[in-house]
Amino acid sequence: MSHVAGHPATFFAAVAIVLVWAVTGPLFGYSDAWQLVINTGTTIITFLMVFLIQSSQNRDSLEIQLKLSELVLAMRGANDRIATIEDMSDKELEELHRESHARAQAACEAIEKRKESRQKRV
Fold first, then answer.
1. Cα 21 vs. chain centroid, distance in angstroms?
2. Which end of the chain, N or C, is surrounded by fewer C-beta atoms within 10 Å?
3. How many C-beta neighbours within 10 Å does residue 66 have?
4. Cα dist. 27→4, 19, 23, 34, 91 in Å?
5. Residue 114: which domain range?
6. Distance between CA 87 and CA 78 in Å, rounded?
7. Which of 76, 100, 104 is CA-nearest to residue 88?
8. How many distinct structural domains can be found in the chain?
9. Are the C-beta atoms of residues 78 and 44 closer than 8 Å to each other?
10. Mind listing the pLDDT tens digit for each residue in 91-110?
């Protein structure tokens, strides 16, 4: 949905709506009802866009975090599913996030064990 909202055609459609509204002003005598049409429409669209933008930002943040996690873990073989992360559903992203987190914890534990064994040798 955010792709539609950010598309140039959507912008031009919005401009066209505003122009049609402005041109019809004299026909309706610039009445309160005429003004209410654009005010109500823009208020509703703005309200809905807040949630659309927040949802998009949440998803983008999780995608970036997963990609960064995969780069850190790449030394042991990267997860090929990360290459198509943008096409995954929210549920798939959450599942992948849990898997990635478990792998990161296992890697940290392995590093700690290596540190401990090195300290015992010294």
1. 33
2. C
3. 21
4. 32, 14, 8, 9, 51
5. 2-121
6. 18
7. 100
8. 1
9. no
10. 999 999 999 899 899 999 99
Q: How much is the pLDDT for 72?
A: 67
Q: How confident is the model at residue 10 (pLDDT cuts 50, 70, 90)?
A: very high
- Contact present, 55 and 78 (Cβ < 8 Å): no
Instruction: Give CA–CA dist 85/102, Å, rounded.
Output: 18
Q: Which residues contact 67 (CB under 8 A, 6 or more apart)?
A: 82, 85
pLDDT of residue 75: 67
Place of tokens 């949630």: 51
Tokens encoding 74: 């790449």
Cα 80 to its chain centre, rounded Å, is 21
